[in-house]
Specification:
heterodimer, A: 163 residues, 5 helices, 5 strands, 34% helix, elongated, B: alpha+beta, Beta Polymerase, domain 2, 5-stranded mixed sheet, 19% helix, globular
Amino acid sequence: MNLSDQHFTDDNIIITKVEDLFNWARLSSLWQVGFGLACCAIEMMATSASHYDFDRFGVIPRPSPRQSDVIIISGTVTLKMAIRIKRLYEQMPDPKYVISMGSCSNCGGPYWEHGYHVLNGVDRVIPVDVFVPGCPPRPEALLEGLLKLQEKIRNESFGDKNV
Amino acid sequence: MKSAEEIFNILKEKFPGSVTELVADKPVDPFIEASPLEIDKICTFLLESEEFKFDSLMNLSGVDDANGEKEKDEKGFDTIKGGTLSVWYHLESIELKHKITLKVSTERENPEVASVAEIWRSSDWHEREAFDLYGIKFLNHPDLRRILMPYDWEAGHPLRKDYKNPEFYQGMKVPD
């Protein structure tokens, strides 16, 4: 149930819980770090473009991790890059969320067996909230991943993230 | 426009000890085998002589021949002792429109090849890649260090046939 679906009985006054209000504010404007690594980044760009719009969910790209809420790891994570991803994740302010997009960042992808420099899954360095499968996932799949993240945020309580 | 036999004959006269043979019976383009420490003199001659003018190095890559004997080392993994590593040069002349392939073989334990970085500048990074992935040392290279793997990669040279992934790298679990 969305906050804005409530019935206005008395001239724009809504009565709700503080938790619901904060969660609604967080999920409606998830600003993402524009972080694309490989082919999944093209699909992420396609999702941000006008056909499968990201902006209608409140997701806009920010250039710096210090100003963003969600990082979408899209593409193959190599060992060299994983050190930098950890640094970017630590630079994001709380509350922060991670979406792992595509096979390569979920589990190493097609390079899991013989890739000598591929990290098999980005969850070996940072904690991931939502995994979106696909190689690459369609924009609709990424949007569903975003909706699942919004569901997760809607059901959060204050003790979950250090605010 | 010269064929491979003509190029080989001229090279054999000029460098009798270093250029060994022309291998033309394999299903690939004919290639000339040369010795690893003289390859820079041979390539200088190929670049500068008027009848050859090989001014474009199309490719330089290392190959692990894996022709030594396979044995098990102390941890039970397969290693290869003896045998060779080779470096292949693919040269082309844009003016005279001919091309040739050269092959250089070195031993696996201490591979050393003369560097052609002063002759064609593009081989600078190709030789760094061959060093990084196979361990072949190039003598007189201006800046020989790893180019693809991280600079502090201790676990060896990945494209060798007996390479094993390390367990951890800087706190991340590497293998599957």
